[in-house]
Amino acid sequence: MLLLLRHRLRPHAKTVVLILVLQLVQALGLLALPALNADVIDNGVLARDTGHIFSRSGLMLAVTVLQASAATGAIYLGARVGLGLGADLRAATFGAVLRFSARDLARFGTPTLITRTTQDVRQLQVMVFSTLSALLSAPFLALGGVVLALGQDVALSGVLLVAIPVAMVVIGLLQRRMTAPSRELQTRTDAVNRVLREQVTGIRVIRAFVRDRHERVRFAGANTDLMTVATRLGRLQAYFAGSALLVVNLSGIAVVALGGPRIADGDMRLGSLVAFLSYLTQILISVMVAMSVVEMLPRAKVSAGRINEVLTTEPGVPDPAEGRRPPAGPVTLTVEKASFSYPGAENPVLQEVDLIARPGETTAIVGSTGAGKTTLVNLMARLLDVGSGSVTIGGLDVREMDRDTLSSTVGLVPQRAYLFSGTIASNLRYGSPEATDEQLWRALEIAQAREFVEAMPAGLETPVGQGGSTVSGGQRQRLAIARALLAQHQVYLFDDAFSALDNTTDEALRAALAREVGAATVVVVAQRVSTIRSADRIVVLDAGRVEASGTHEELLRTSSIYREIVRSQPGSHETQGLGSK
Ligand SMILES: Nc1ncnc2c1ncn2[C@@H]1O[C@H](COP(=O)(O)OP(=O)(O)OP(=O)(O)O)[C@@H](O)[C@H]1O
What we know:
By secondary structure, the chain is of the alpha/beta class. Helix content is 63%, strand content 10%. Strands 6-9-10-3-11-12 form a 6-stranded mixed beta sheet, sandwiched between helices. α3 packs antiparallel against α5 and α14 (437-446) crosses α16 (473-486). The two termini are 64 Å apart. The structure holds adenosine-5'-triphosphate. It is a multi-pass membrane protein.
């Protein structure tokens, strides 16, 4: 944690020094006030010296103004440093996540990345703010208070000897009991978030299966768990506040009880008693504040560790030191003896896969569910890196291209098309901000999306909900295809991107695509045989291996798996009459 904070607080070093000075000033002010007060009582009030009362009161006023200004400044600057550090850490964590490969993202999981970027960062932010605004002045106040209290009356210091350890033990014990519920509060808040997130996302499934009651019970369970632990924590916090006040007040009573008779005997001055009471309160409050902040440290340390884990993760697909560009114009995409395993998985998902996709041609990949098609496409777009073997584009290994070059060379339409909240136009311009409206309409036309966008109330400016929730699955796919086409890539990868289209649209789209991206290299993953039968080459993937490759007609003769895929599709009579080889 210290390393992370030292690095991140470096830009705020001057402000931190200034806060330290301000805290010192405000602590000195707080320490001076009781002594001045004692002076007013003893040498002004009791001595009936009005002049002394006024002069010392004026001085006290000046000290109070100075102390209050310094305290305000320290808290303001402390908040600025804390918030600045928070913003900085959030940006750094998000930046690190953006560099993650698909594998890194899967390893962490979305919910924890969100929690780490928000709540863990907040934990550190609060800790830094509390340290700068409260903890820094505590030692000055506590030590200064002890010295000055002794200066007022040594005999009463017995009360300090008892009160300080008692305060530490009481607060320490309560804090120890609060540690577990505070951690649990975090986990249970996470649980409520998780259930809620799942339920809101899956609301349609819940309705379809009429599982409302079941889900309500599930949410109520998580909600009650959260309330139970929050109540337990609240009770402990109430004890905490109560015990703190009790210790301070009992100590005050002890001081009055022990000091009062000594004043009556003339051994002690009234001002000293009042000053001693003030110092005692300051010392006890400082000790408690310091302990409260120190109590945050273990949780902040855990959060720092979780943030650090994200920041120090070496991206699974690192950028090369010096990126190279593939040749301009038509390029061949070659996958050579590519193998890949997901971390923790027993068997490799892809084994020694060979594939050549030539420019001006469409190469299709088919295979049963889980055969490794998406993984193979992810290797081609370098969302993942091969375990062994290679993927080259125009003879250049994809690992030698930086991300900008790669994304301008390869256009990927993923299996699950994602649209961002905004408008149709803002989504289409996502990868090509300069595109004109005319270009957008043209891309929409090729993607067979022009008609439905024209029919929308605001055309290109029609709002789109987060994730594309306000358009249908097929419309979302077509918009995602149009988005990829706008950027004019050398290689296009369509991962099951036509699955939600009806046959006619699918056919019209492929014909328009063939005209538009004629010289580009096109790789299509599809389940539907009609989508791929006209492909120049079809690669049949089975359990991560290339089982066969060739044209539709060739494969009907040579590949039993391909024949099975064709036979399984409704309305297909093509395999009739062909013997199983
Ligand atoms: N992040 C991951 N971690 C571990 N295993 C994974 C991960 N992603 C995919 N797999 C596994 O890898 C195998 C291949 O998955 P992949 O998504 O490449 O198959 P696919 O052929 O595209 O399937 P589908 O046709 O259903 O989309 C599957 O067995 C899957 O369970």
